[in-house]
Amino acid sequence: MAKVLEILKHGAQSLKEPSAFSKFDTKQDRERVQNLVEDMIVTLREAGGVGLAAPQVGVNERILLIEVDNNPRYSKMPNFELKVFVNPIIQKVSNKQGYFVEGCLSVPNEWIELKRPKWVKVSWQDQYGRPYTKKLTGVAARIFFHEYDHLEGLLISDFMEGYE
Fold it and tell me: Which of 35, 71, 73, 99 stands 20 to 30 A from 44 (CA)?
């Protein structure tokens, strides 16, 4: 049964470390990834976020989730069906960029306006190891870039002047 995981906060060392690729080599690998993703989904929904990356729950693997489903914290965002990205690889990004105000479950009560590409073409696997490639646009692209930063060891606080 899936469980709510602790979301690490700014200052946790593992949030600053780049993440490793998840493996699907053995049955144990596949079950571990699937169980982690189930726990992350429950954790994301319980926390009321729109995205979550594995490093935020103390697992430095390249896994992130995006879901916007009538979220009261983000009432002006269009809904986006749950997507699980394992081992995402950015293929191409838009030259056009736009500003978006971002918050973070690991940096509570802080907001920053960041400039991000308007779309991204990304390849990834789902939690079962099936491959996908898709162009994400709008809010999905913005959330993807935010969560992808976590996989690289970056937080929104890294973009804030004077934030300790």
Answer: 99
